[in-house]
Amino acid sequence: MLKTILRRTGKFAAIAAAGLVMSAQAAEPIKIGSFLSVTGPASFLGDPELKTLEMYVEKINEEGGVLGRQLELIHYDDVGNASNARNFASRLIRSDRVDIIVGGSTTGATMAAVPLVEQAKIPFISLAGAVVITTPVKEWVFKTPQSDRMAAERILADMKDRGITKIGLISGTGGFGSSGRTQTLEVAEKMGIEVLADETYSGSDTDMTAQLTNIRNTDGVEAVLNFGFGQGPAIVTRNYDQLGIELPFYQSHGVASDSFLELAGDAAEGLRLPASPLLVPDSLPEDDPQKDVVQSYKAEYEARWDSKVSTFGAYAYDGLMLAVQAIEAAGSTDKEAVREALENIQGYVGVTGVYNMSPEDHNGLEADSFRMLEVQNGDWKLVN
Amino acid sequence: MFAEFLQYLFTGITIGATYALIALGFTLIYNASHVINFAQGEFLMIGGMATVSLTAMGVPMVLAIILAVLLAGVLGILLQRFAIAPAKQADVVTLIIITIGASIFIRGLAQLVWGKEYHVMQNFSSDEPIRIFGAVLNSQSLWVLGIGAILVVGLVLFFTRTLIGKAILATSMNKEAARLVGIRTQLVLMLAFLVSAVLGSVAGIVVAPITFTSYDIGIMLGLKGFVAAAIGGLGSGIGAVVGGLLLGVVEAMAAGYISSDYKDAVAFSMILVVLFFMPRGLFGAKVVERV
């Protein structure tokens, strides 16, 4: 008797538990996983990225979620360390069982997670820049920022428009600068631009006068391009001004921020660089498709966090919106369906640019998504 | 051709003067205690960062500089009192490791207080560069050289003309004997840290308009200063100055004439070459081993 009761209760319990699981599944949130460099040396990337993700996940949930389900953001801080990134990616996949990953602030962190993601077959949208992330195309890996190659294309095209065919190049020896240098040399050869001088400086250098003197003394140089990151390019800009070099001067998108203007001061006057439209939201022409997105992202971010918006946060915005759009298009969180939907997104208008994904292009941006800016009177001016 | 050479020379001497000041700081503390103080670069950082943040708060530049130097001096004394002095029985190697720990601590603190951004400091005088024979000299370079020269002369006078200076020298020559004649060696050590912190912070302040300043500026500059001190011969004042200038000029020449890729490599291999042929450095004291 006791036994049967026990057995029955057991059965009931099992059925009840099963019921609970089913009802929980119906309302179960869509899990968006993320690993970002929120602290550590790359915190200037990860911090605005996390803030953006948190803010828009909240906003989407208030508006009813995606496919009637709430979004749940699960995020870890990799402190800018690639091996941490790998561990967290593994945790996101194995124990958190997320539906999609939007993260990876640096190229190092992204590339450390790529093998895991490919193996687990889970869609991954990276927020890091280097061209290696999506070239060659990896089935499950996408990215939102433009690559350094596009920056090089944009800069060199602008030079060509001005009739410049012979340039001097100076670049940082860090990851960003050296990758930029390689891309610039390749693109220059393709576009028929000659790189007559090729100098470098290390991230902790405090004076680049010697390198710039070499470039100045090279016959035939018509413009100078600096590919670098951090304070180095600001020192280059100041030395350039001190040496009184009159040639057109270009910087990369690596320094497209207001803090660069502050560091370089008057010396930056007249230099050009490719940048996100986010730097000049108000001077975008009325017919610019991105104008609304850019302005509302800037306004919402600054209202919520009371700090200046950055182009890096915008990468996370675009990553999240692409993920949401793909899940909606797929009609479920089935990984293969989401991946396919991501691959077929056409004409998504983001803050960074207009994305047209394809099976051959998991970035979906054109070099044109960079705007060419010139420093005029200590501020950015849209020139092209 | 000549203009090019002159340009490299100016660049080299300016940065070399900074290295020399840092090297002097190393030398001072080394002389007083045989400790190589790897927190020397942090004094440099404190000087620059404190000046920048004080001027940002509206303090006039001159006053900000004085306060920043005072702050670095206090930090130097604290470092000696709370990190070095309690471990006075320890090996020199242990003390050196303590200074490395202290430098990481100070850097971390600076990062919390001032953040991680780079900051600009205005040139002391005009922004207009000076042109000499086709080469360009940043007016701030003259400040670096001038203040560097004044500090070196001041130090020489301090060590040869004042009782305290002589006491430091005596302690460096023979600690036991110095104590026997009534010199308070702990006080001398504290003074050495104070003077060296002041030197470091002044170097950090005069060079900040050229290099910018941030919480981690002390790492590389401190290391280069150490290389300069080692080339010149640890413990030698002239050695520190010559080593610093030499290092700066060689670096600039290497970047100009060979390749900017090898600039740091040239600087660091210089230390190998010098120490290989002259194990005590260019001006190192000759040590006679008594049998």
Structure description:
Chain B: One of its GO terms (biological process) is amino acid transport. Chain B: InterPro entries: ABC_transp_permease, BCAA_transport_permease. Chain B: Its main location: membrane. With 384 residues, chain A is of the alpha/beta class. Chain A contains twelve helices and 14 strands. In chain A, the strands form four sheets. Chain A has a five-stranded parallel beta sheet, with helices on both faces. In chain A, helix 2 links the parallel strand 1 (30-36) and strand 2. The radius of gyration of chain A is 24 Å and the shape is globular. Chain A starts with a helix and ends with a strand. Chain B has a two-stranded antiparallel sheet with strand order 1-2. Chain B is globular. Chain B is mostly helical. Chain B has one domain (2-145, 186-277). Chain B starts with a helix and ends in a 14-residue tail after the last helix. The interface between A and B is medium-sized, with 30 and 32 residues.
- Give the neighbour order of strands across the main sheet of chain A: 2-1-3-4-5
Topology-level CATH name of the largest domain in chain A: Rossmann fold
Estimate the strand proportion of chain B.
under 5%
Structural class of chain B: mainly alpha
Rg of chain B, Å, rounded: 19 Å
- Share in helix of chain B: over 70%
% residues in beta strands of chain A = 15-25%
Q: What number of domains of chain A?
A: 2
Q: How many discrete domains of chain B?
A: 1
Biggest interface, and residues per chain? Answer: A-B, 30 and 32 residues
Proportion of helical residues of chain A: 40-55%
Question: TL;DR of this structure?
Answer:
The complex is a heterodimer of chains A (384) and B (291). Chain A is 45% helix and 18% strand.
